[in-house]
Write the structure tokens for this entry.
Amino acid sequence: MRGATHATWAACAVAVALAAAGCGGGDTSGAGAGIISSSWGDPQNPLEPANTNEVQGGKVLDMVFRGLKRYDPKTGAAQDMVAEKIETTDSQNFTVTLKDGWKFSNGEPVTAESFVDAWNYAADVRNKQNNATFFSNIMGYDDVHPASGEPKSKTMSGLVVKDPKTFTVALKDKFSTWPQTLGYQAFSPLPKSFFTDHDGWLAKPVGNGPYTVESYTKGTAMQLRAWDGYTGPDKAQNDGVDLKVYTDNNTAYTDLIAGNLDLVDDVPASQLKNVKSDLGDRYINQPALITQTLTFPLYDPQWGKPGTEKVRQGISRAINRPEITKQIFQNTRSPAMDWTSSALGAAGGFKDMCGELCTYDPAAAKKLIEEGGGLPGGKMTITSNVDTGSHRTWMDAVCNSINNALGQGPVCTVNPVGTFADFRNQTTNFKLTGPFRSGWQGDYPLIQNFLQPLYYTGASSNYGKFSDPEFDRLVDEANRESDTAKAIATFQDSEKILAAQMPSIPLWYQNGSAGYSERLTDVELNQFSVPVYDRIKVS
């Protein structure tokens, strides 16, 4: 997501906009010796767990909330957190039992009702939560979230509170891996204050995690502080985190080198040639559950009409992935071979499902595009935000590759959007008329999470509005399968439909990268490339 000189004055230029940032070197936090300062970007939406489905907001939720499960930072395994146990005899009806002693930072106990009320709120169509469809497999979802009109009920019939520590969940169909999805923040519990003083809660979210939100100034910074009353097993090893907003991660990197920032969690591509000499062992580069694609707006008749799948396939064959990942990303990306993530590994479902359609071949690219009727209007535009990462650089490279392959002049151009929030608003409101960047950071380490939320009809992150009945059927079948190997094979069958229709073009798999100051130790990234803030120590 996200060179510059090492001069301190360059770092101070951003401090005009960031009142909390110090400009003298030394104490980078500006708020105390035990506070970590880290680069960040404003979330698109308020920090309701079921309304946040992008990385920046997810970082905060991961510090402020703990759900039934939590994913091990190294292995990705779904481990019980608030849940004592989750039991089932048929993979469709589950009994959830909570551990004793959990509470919210306002002192309220975390109960079965805390989860059931939160999940019903998330599913209610009137609340317009982005992650509502994560609850669509629960009985009664259609009554609270109808395709049109007012809901018939305020609660889902499949959720029943048995006692303060126990609730049951009835799903519409068998879903053998459902418990493994429950580490995703959309399934977080909510305190009563969320419902009784919603505006107040949004201004200062209250959760049950190791940190509390002390303050947030949009466009500047959010201050989180370690919660002394937290009794979970992952108590913060620091005093808090100041998340500082940057609209250019090159500036964040400059601040890091100048001593005015502790942590940058995405090293700019332009600095990869310098990062080892700048940071040495304080640079992290590791595989992550992240993939980058170009998604087509199939809601636009130009791109969604029958036959244009060949155009989309041809564009894919015109992109020289190995050259771009080598020249621009220098071993922090690898060419994509499918629609999932290489970090899943073969056992998790990673396999070359795109084949020759993800292989650079100018002659084949031209042939496919001609067979599909040519580029709509004879041209195409790629859109992405350019405030973080190296998006402008790779967009130019992709267009150059397409233009060189087709030999028809500058038919591919880029449309840089200034901020991530503006880009997301255009994406989520279906305003784009050409292919756009779709970065996907896994919510949980299952192949299902790289397919259903993005390509299932009406799914929460299906921003291209792809719809295919056979794809949906295969996903449903895979979810019902109790044998893991069979389930993965069925999900891979659904990927064959993505290859045939090409609703999005796999570009590359992304490593997690970070750089940190000499003040910090025990810095690590989890499988989703997010810093494990609670484990970081400040010297």
Observations:
- Residues 484-501 form the longest helix (18 residues).
- The longest strand covers residues 283-295.
- The CA atoms of residues 247 and 320 lie 29 Å apart.
- Confidence is low (pLDDT under 50) at residues 1-31.
